[in-house]
Design a protein that fits this description.
Strand order of the largest sheet: 1-9-8-5-4-2-3
Bound molecules: pyridoxal-5'-phosphate
Radius of gyration: 21 Å
Helix content: 25-40%
CATH architecture of the largest domain: 3-Layer(aba) Sandwich
Order of helices and strands: HHEHEHEHEHEEEEEHHEEHHEH
Number of helices: 11
Number of domains: 2
Structural class: alpha/beta
Largest sheet: 7 strands, mixed
Number of strands: 12
Length: 399
């Protein structure tokens, strides 16, 4: 059997604001722009990959430390630990904190499954919390209610909170840190969607004592496979994470100090990220310009995303709220506009977690949002004409 040849990617002309954009008649409107980004950045990525083949250290090669340093320089965290995925980035700190059976881990219900899954993987119990209607992030007041409820029930020990920066918008870490401190809980920020964002003058990676992210290809900063990282200012936590990342190893090879994971990031994926990172700040700015354009073009027709003062989102998704979502999606598909639904059901109603939630009606905001949310194409390399095509199609689809 002859393998199917990959479609050639045209070299892109340079755009006025310094970005290489795909040719004006790039036929396909991409949802996350993975191919358009490759066309723009391949000359930066290729030598980084070639270097890995030259030295041959595919596991824990020099790219890992170089990436960790570059990520720290980017976000201002003291320590970064590169790991194999955004999911392992959550498992490792929970292991480091000793989270296990009998412990309650508070998570928003409106999130990707990984946020809740990691508690159960360690034998702990996820406790689902509702989100704020506007930000879509964990509601600090509802968090307080659930902590009080768990204490009153007495079956579980409140241990940790995992906040999620949904769609790229940082959660309310000031409120969450105050509650966590008062209640003696560890606070983890699941920034799988928000690395590159900020709250005031503090960047994601420094907003919580421990922050995790994902480099899944479609995330704002993605590699070409699975990857992730954990950020902290606490050197002891970082040392534990580095041990857990490699089977709980001690300072001497094959000294096994604790039970760990194989959670290493590949050198090749670190090389991809090193090639992409210099463009990332500009990409976040471009994503924000696209969000501005969508806001201006759609604000009169649909509910556009909340933009709290002083926060910068990375727009992992640009998600509007519509009625008759299925009809709107179908009309957009007909017009050649790809869309996605993140997420069709809140976690507390998913079969895997039903035993850990209070059922339908218990978290009304998460439930209502899952019925109305619709994500539009979003990436740094989208041209204005394409954005206007999306805007016109949405206007027509909701009319
Ligand atoms: C993508 C994602 C994860 C998991 O990341 P992976 O790299 O796919 O393991 C965790 N939490 C959230 C909120 C995510 O969006």
């Amino acid at each position: 059997m002859t393998p199917k040849a990959a479609a050639p990617i045209e070299t892109a002309p340079e755009h006025a604001d310094g970005f290489f954009l795909p040719d004006a008649d790039f036929p396909e409107l991409e949802f996350a722009g993975i191919r358009a980004q490759y066309a723009a950045l391949k000359d930066a990525i290729a030598p980084c990959i070639a270097e890995v083949f030259r030295h041959g250290r595919f596991i824990m090669g020099p790219e890992i430390e170089a990436l960790e340093e570059a990520l720290c320089a980017f976000c201002g965290a003291r320590e970064a630990v590169a790991v194999s995925s955004g999911t392992d980035a959550l498992v490792a700190p929970l292991m480091a904190l000793g989270v296990g059976p009998g412990d309650a881990v508070f998570v928003p219900s409106f999130t990707f499954t990984a946020t809740a899954e990691v508690a159960l993987l360690l034998g702990a119990s996820p406790v689902f919390v509702d989100v704020e209607e506007r930000s879509f992030n964990i509601d600090p007041d509802d968090l307080r209610r659930h902590i009080a409820q768990v204490r009153a029930d007495g079956a579980l020990t409140p241990k940790a909170v995992i906040a999620v920066d949904l769609f790229g918008l940082p959660a309310d870490y000031e409120a969450l840190a105050a509650i966590s401190e008062e209640e003696g809980l560890s606070l983890i920020g699941d920034a799988a969607q928000s690395f590159g964002g900020r709250r005031g003058n503090r960047k994601v990676g420094t907003l919580a004592p421990v922050t995790t992210t994902s480099f899944y290809p479609a995330k704002p900063l993605g590699c070409y496979g699975d990857g992730g990282a954990v950020f902290t200012d606490d050197p002891e936590m970082a040392e534990l994470l580095r041990s857990i990342r490699v089977h709980g190893q001690g300072s001497v090879q094959y000294a096994v100090e604790r039970v760990g994971l194989n959670a290493r990031l590949d050198s090749l994926q670190a090389a991809v990220l090193l090639g992409k990172l210099p463009a990332f700040e500009g990409e976040v700015a471009a994503r924000n310009r696209l969000a501005d354009r969508y806001d201006a073009g759609l604000g009169d027709a649909v509910v556009t995303p909340f933009r709290p003062d002083g926060c910068v989102s990375t727009w992992a998704q640009y998600s509007i709220l519509v009625d008759d979502r299925d009809g709107v999606r179908a009309r957009l598909a007909e017009a050649g506009i790809p869309t996605a639904v993140y997420y069709p059901a809140p976690m507390h109603l998913q079969p895997a977690y039903r035993d850990h939630g209070a059922g339908e009606g218990s978290l009304p905001v998460s439930e209502a949002l899952c019925g109305r949310v619709l994500s539009l194409p979003m990436h740094a390399y989208m041209q204005d004409e394409s954005a206007d095509r999306v805007i016109d199609a949405v206007q027509a689809a909701v009319a």
